[in-house]
Amino acid sequence: MSFKDNIDKNQLPKHIAIIMDGNGRWAKKQGNARIFGHKNAIKAVRDVCEGCAELGVGYLTLYAFSTENWNRPKMEVMALMDLLVSTINTETETLIKNNIRLNAIGRLADLPEKVGANLREAIEKTKNNTGMTLTLALSYSSKVEITEAVRRIAADVEAGKLKPENIDNVLIDSFLYTSDMPDPDLLIRTSGELRISNFMLWQLAYAELYFTPTFWPDFDKEELYKAIADYQQRERRFGMTSEQLS
Fold it and tell me: Which active-site residues does the annotation give?
């Protein structure tokens, strides 16, 4: 029996965010270089995208590369960028076939030009797809995202376009990278690490957190279904009491 059999399609998370962790450790356990783990992670990405799209999840965001990841060994970063280019090139047609729209958030200008060009081309090719939105968080830092939003809001106040008393949660949402999507309902982190790692700090305020010891290259559709089934057992109160919800 699959965990999929326990999923109520009427109570799916609208937005799932995933911190894909454990590629290097997965490779090391097998006596291989870290990049071997990154290469084998592509199947997990494909499985999760297909699984979410088949269920009817509207938004999937994958934490693919953080601003801190630039500090990794240069050879690993270069290999990751090359892998990103090749993956975008090979998977774009699959996205189109499955009616998935590609999106990206983060400091995209920091990416090498070849990566940026391939990414922009794939986003353009899939922009009219009406199914799930797949967002890649690349060169992403939530603290940078919030800092940039605050600067832009401050500039609007200084220019007289905005009054300080009109700044609220909704307005701040509109200045974030994620302004065109709902906040995540479920955050999944693989590899057994129990932290958020500077990912969507504002947007995850009321998300359900799911941590699994499974390394990302081993995360498949069944692992996804398990996480969603667990999510559906949670009582989401948003500050209220159980009695208020019943």
Answer: 21, 69
